[in-house]
Structure formats: structure tokens, C-alpha cells
Amino acid sequence: MLTKSNGGIMNAPTGKRACVNMLLSGTASGVIGAAWLAEQAGVGNVLTLDIGGTSADLALIIDGQPQFGTGEVVGDFPLFLPSVSVTSIGSGGGSIAWADDFGVLKVGPESAGSTPGPAPPSPTPWRRAASSATPPSPMTRSAWTAPAPTR
């Protein structure tokens, strides 16, 4: 079974024909799981926070029900299909911080990844560098990202 952006499920042949229904399925699944957990705990109103590798997402559960809508956006593209309402509020734990050719700080869309286990720290090094009296110069991508941890 495959999950859908609206929190439901479908079989693999349907997913092959209607793959657009899976675009936001990961975040939707987190909200559906949080609604179930809230119900088990006897809590009706919940603000969920899902911090993944590339984004931090919020969703509301009101009176035990996830909120739904249409017109969610992926990049510059609106999706006109029912989906669990989720709002991205920032970068996730694996987003790579870097500086462009003009020295402007950027975050993502690249991800540090994980194979398996926790991803190496990423936005933290640029925060540390940005707060220091002598930031890296010239500002290069490698100066703003942390090395992968050794195992």
C-alpha cells in the first residue's frame, strides 16, 4: 500500500497511474499518525511539528481532525488536489548551508543525507561562523558546511 497526500492509501497499480496523489504523502502521513496518537492520549487540539532532512513542517489537528485543503504549493506550482494542510516553516536538520558567488548565505535545497543514522550538522556551522568576529574569507561552500562525522 502507498500513502496519498490526503492521508489515505492506495495500491501500487493505482499509484503508478496516479502518482501525483503521492507528492505530499510523507508530510500527510506524519499528520495522520499524530492525529491517531493524539486520540490515544485524549488530546483533541494539536500543533504538529515534523522536522525532516530538508524542511520543518507544521500542521493543525482541530477537534481530533487533521485539516485538509486544496491549493498546496510545491515550489512555484500549486497542486489542485485534496491534501492534508501542512505549512513549511523552515529548513530541516539535513539542509546544507552555503554561500553563493556573491557571498550571500543560502540554505538548501541540497541535503546532507544519512546512510543510515543522523545526518551531519548543517545550519549550525554557519550560525557559529556568522556570529564569530572573523567569518571565513573568502566565503566558500566548504567554509560553511560541517565535515561528515567519522564512525
Topology:
Blueprint: E1 2-3, E2 9-10, H1 12-17, H2 25-41, E3 46-51, E4 56-62, E5 65-66, E6 68-69, E7 72-74, E8 77-79, E9 83-84, E10 87-90, E11 95-99, E12 105-111, H3 123-131, H4 141-144
Antiparallel strand pairs: 1-2, 3-4, 4-5, 4-10, 6-9, 7-8, 11-12
Structural class: alpha+beta
Mean of the pLDDT scores? Answer: 77
Please provide the count of β strands: 12
- What is the rounded Rg? 19 Å
Report the sheet with the most strands, covering strand number, pairing sense and barrel closure.
4 strands, antiparallel
Low-confidence stretches: 124-151
The share of residues in helices is 10-25%
Distance between the termini: 35 Å
Helix tally equals: 4
Shape: globular
Q: How much beta, percentage-wise?
A: 25-35%
How do the helices and strands follow one another from N- to C-terminus? EEHHEEEEEEEEEEHH
Structural features, described:
The chain is an alpha+beta fold. Helix content is 24%, strand content 30%. The strands form 5 sheets. Strands 3, 4, 5 and 10 form a 4-stranded antiparallel beta sheet that branches. A hairpin with a 2-residue loop joins β7 and β8.
Give a short overview.
The protein is of the alpha+beta class and 151 residues long.
Primary descriptors:
24% helix; 4-stranded antiparallel beta sheet; two-stranded antiparallel sheet; 151 residues; disordered C terminus; alpha+beta
